[in-house]
Amino acid sequence: MRPDQIERQLSRILLQVSKPGRYVGGEYNSVVKDWEAVDFKIALAFPDIYDIGMSNLGIMLLYEQINNQPDMLAERVFCPWLDMEAVMRHHHIPLHSLETRHHLQDFDLIGVSLPYEQLYTNVLNLLDLAGMPVRSRDRDESYPLVVAGGHACFNPEPMADFIDAFVIGEGEEIILEIARALQGKRGCPHDEQLRALAGIQGVYVPRFYDVTYHPDGTVADVRPNVPEAPERVLKRIVPVLPKPFTRFLVPNIDTVHNRAPIEIMRGCTRGCRFCHAGMITRPVRERPVPEVMAAIEEIIASTGFEEISLLSLSSSDYVYVHELVEAVHARYRDSGLSLSLPSLRIETTSADLLDKLGDTRRGGFTFAPEAATEKMRALINKYVPDEQVLEAARAVYSRGWRTIKFYFMIGHPEETLDDVQAIINLCKAVLAEGRRILGGKANVNVGVSTFIPKPHTPFQWVPQDTREMVLEKQQLLKNQLRGHGLHLRWNTVESTELEGFLSRGDRRLGRVIERAWKKGARFDAWDSEHNHDLWLQAFEESGLTPWFYTHRERGLDEVFPWDHIDAAVHKKFLKEDYLMSLAGETRVDCRDRCFACGILPKFKEQRALTEPMAWECPPVKPAAERRRGGGERAPNVTVLP
């Protein structure tokens, strides 16, 4: 179907669906190039609805990188909601881009963002709506290649049957290398195109690897079957963060985050043992304050957003957080600009920082202690004394904030009901501090998720809590975290189980995913749409069991399905850290002491490829000086181990 035909069809049917603004395109700052004048065309697909995908910073970064190339274009595509999907299928309207209404099959490359595992069935649905076979082997060179990237791709095996190639690591630079390689192979068989991609560091092509299994179902070996494929695919690292993206597309409707994000820091040095993002995004790279301030200025001028979110895994660990907040406060204190600084750590949130945030922050404060007993915090390597939690609460409430939100996890290794009871006790103690200061206006909002062991973390060996254990712990929380000033939210057991078996799955899960999708599974990240029974039926019909992937304890020498994916952190280091957790031992912040996790040699090697000069890790300030935020201004880039 031609773009003009799609446009005519849409004009007739959009008023039949909810939120038609999701499908009209034409947003301020969107880029529409002359289709015929551009040589190489990429569709950037986010496999969820517009409301979610338009808040994804990764899509925006790639959108700009590609459209900055005179001979390339990037256009966006999102999954239609259920009502729109039904209308599209009824009228035989193929999935198409927002910018020019071109059918996805008209593009040279489809880039799929996979930030989390619950999107897997949506990817299959997206391909099917585009009129494409869902399995990679069934698509010949008449179809565009499908390349996926994002955090979920650090274990690509469950989606290996459907994706032609995966980007492992950071995508800002590699996307252009992939596009250039495919430009030179246009019209060639897919196998030849994929061989060209396999030679790019950070690209994993599943069909070029054979997997064998032991009789007990565990992986015996993953071995390349062509010379172009490396034995281990090393993640791609961007040595110097590119200039912040500032020309955000202004969405047509409200999205999940109606604000503009600026990434002030990438990576984390804390070493929380449950944290997938903290392990796979090493090393830490920080932006200088002038660069962030210039980006804020550009965003306000080009978008009109009234809230800026300063993103990182641990914002208060950003070396120059005080200097930055002070600069924003001085420049925008009377402008009505709201500054959001998520991921604050209790132990590094000083009263001075709270005061500087005062006039720019509208909401409450969010902290993530994750566990409520000192024993559990030592086990997960996120140690904070209880008194420090209460001290931070007093500092927040005494400055006029009425709400503190805590994030906790249940289901940590070796957790007991006493550890869960401690969450209740701590939240009530914090509320008591708030009432002493603010009276009945104080609130404590508590978000409790269930721990899911993730690949490439020290806890990748541990079993996940069973359904019965999770329900018992959740019931204890529901019974006692109630009443005026206390508000509790939790994850469903079903969503936790889904993420659990997809996170540590092997290549055999592909047939489970496909069966679940054919039975109607889609939008599994939405509690209202996730049907767990479909997944259990798909497992049974595939001859597999969820238990094998979720509740089974792994042997220390087991070969994991993702062991051929190199996140640049040694498995030996992760194993050592796991054994330390069993002994209740902690590691200090690796800004203060290097534990030889493996990231620095590999980072130096990648940086040398892009910057042919000797490079050494820059000196790091003493911890006390960093926490104060003093000292000289950040250089153009600071790289920390």
What do you see in this structure?
- The chain is an alpha/beta fold and 641 residues long.
- Among the domains are: 3-232, Cobalamin-binding domain (Rossmann fold); 240-362 and 605-635, Transcription Regulator spoIIAA.
- It has 22 helices and 20 strands.
- The chain has a six-stranded mixed sheet, covered by helices on one side. Strands 15-16-17-18 form a four-stranded parallel sheet.
- The termini are far apart.
Largest sheet: 6 strands, mixed
Given this structure, which CATH class of the domain at 3-232 is correct? Answer: Alpha Beta
In percent, how helical is the residue content?
25-40%
Q: How many runs of DSSP E, i.e. beta strands?
A: 20
Which outline best applies? Answer: globular
Any idea what the CATH superfamily of the domain at 3-232 is called?
Answer: Cobalamin-binding domain
Strand order of the largest sheet: 2-1-3-4-5-6
Overall mean pLDDT? 91
Radius of gyration: 24 Å
Structural class label = alpha/beta
Distance between the termini: 52 Å
Strand content: 5-15%
Question: Regions with pLDDT < 50 over 5+ consecutive residues?
Answer: 612-641
- Helical segment count: 22
Write a concise synopsis of the structure shown.
By secondary structure, the chain is of the alpha/beta class. It contains 22 helices and 20 strands.
For this entry, give a set of tags.
globular; 20 strands; alpha/beta; Rossmann fold; disordered C terminus; Transcription Regulator spoIIAA; four-stranded parallel beta sheet; six-stranded mixed beta sheet; 641 residues
